[in-house]
Design goal:
It contains eight helices and no strands. The chain is an all-alpha fold and 139 residues long. Protoporphyrin IX containing FE binds next to α4, α6, α7 and α8. Protoporphyrin IX containing FE (HEM) binds next to α4, α6, α7 and α8.
Length: 139
């Protein structure tokens, strides 16, 4: 008999931040995310500040990690340090359908590679997918 998939419903007491293992685990996921981007989606990586080898730079990784930690329900340090993320404005020149799909592929590789449980991945896929679609400017 196959086990029934249990869906994950986040709450203040059980945010994705905790399910992912807290700050250091999320920073490791962000490293996986940008490493996957440089390896698998070089066109997307190149839209970010990169070093000579095409790897997304440390500062960009750290800023996204800080944002992501807050977005997942952890400490709101990004907002404290950088103010409102203004995601729509920041992505104004960037995403179309193809780039949004590439971004999601990298995030799936990172979450799966880090061993995040399936129910939490399914939840994040929905939430991040909706945000990525919202940030698209062209189809
Ligand atoms: C739709 C697919 C996406 C693409 C193609 C994309 C691409 C980019 C690019 C190229 C940058 C660097 C902009 C620059 O500094 O010039 C960036 C920054 C950023 N993106 Fe995205 N992004 C996507 C989706 C998302 C999503 C879903 C989130 C939120 C979960 C997000 C959060 C951020 C943040 C927080 C920054 C950095 C802001 C900072 O530097 O303080 N992005 N993105």
């Amino acid at each position: 008999m196959t086990a029934t998939a249990v869906s994950y419903v986040p709450s203040q007491a059980d945010p994705p931040f905790a399910r992912l293992g807290g700050e250091s685990a999320i920073r490791a996921i962000v490293e996986r995310f940008y490493d996957a981007m440089s390896a698998l989606e070089p066109d997307l990586a190149r839209l970010h500040p990169c070093d000579a080898e095409g790897r997304v730079e440390r500062q960009a990784r750290d800023r996204f990690a800080l944002f992501f930690i807050g977005w997942l329900g952890g400490p709101q340090d990004y907002v404290a340090q950088h103010g409102h993320p203004r995601l729509r404005m920041r992505h104004a020149r960037v995403p179309d359908d193809r780039m949004a799909a590439a971004w999601m592929r990298c995030m799936r590789v990172a979450l799966e590679g880090a061993g995040v449980e399936e129910s939490v991945r399914a939840y994040l896929d929905g939430q991040l997918g909706a945000l990525a679609s919202f940030l698209r400017n062209r189809r």
